[in-house]
């Protein structure tokens, strides 16, 4: 009887562990749409001008609910391969539908107007993130 009870407990524990592992795998494998934007600014643009652009971009998650995540930074690579691009922004969406809502959104269009006078170069790449 004890042997059967012990086997039953082991089977239940194994089933729970399998369910937990499956749930964890599903969470890890959930893909997110990444929108990578890299800017190079005009030499004539002041630090204050560039900061105004950065602040406007940083504010977009407050105005566009479809943005799932946002981060940014400035280049500090020692390789010298940035080709004049100094700022990188990573905007994350849960779906292509969310990106479709973001691109024509009035807040995004207003940001582009702040950016335009200072933009020398831009590169945009979108991809589905795999982990």
TrEMBL record:
Protein keywords: Signal
Q: Where is the signal peptide?
A: 1-21
Work out whether the entry's keyword set contains Signal. yes
The record's listing under InterPro entries reads:
Dabb, Dimeric_a/b-barrel, HS1/DABB1-like
Spell out the Pfam families in the cross-references.
Dabb
Q: Which domain of life is it from?
A: Bacteria
| Keyword match Signal | yes
- The chain positions of domain Stress-response A/B barrel read 33-127
Name the PANTHER family on file: PTHR33178, STRESS-RESPONSE A_B BARREL DOMAIN-CONTAINING PROTEIN
Subunit text: Homodimer.
The entry's protein name is: Stress-response A/B barrel domain-containing protein
Q: Which organism is it from?
A: Rhodopirellula baltica (strain DSM 10527 / NCIMB 13988 / SH1)
């Amino acid at each position: 009887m004890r042997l059967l009870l012990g086997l039953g407990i082991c089977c239940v524990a194994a089933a729970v562990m399998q369910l937990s592992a499956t749930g964890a795998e599903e969470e890890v494998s959930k893909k997110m749409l990444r929108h990578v934007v890299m800017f190079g600014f005009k030499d004539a643009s002041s630090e204050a001008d560039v900061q105004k652009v950065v602040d406007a971009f940083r504010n977009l998650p407050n105005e566009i609910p479809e943005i799932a995540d946002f981060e940014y930074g400035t280049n500090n690579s020692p390789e010298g391969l940035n080709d004049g691009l100094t700022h990188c922004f990573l905007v994350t969406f849960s779906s292509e539908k969310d990106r479709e809502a973001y691109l024509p959104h009035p807040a995004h269009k207003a940001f582009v107007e702040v950016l335009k006078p200072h933009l020398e170069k831009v590169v945009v790449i979108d991809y589905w993130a795999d982990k």
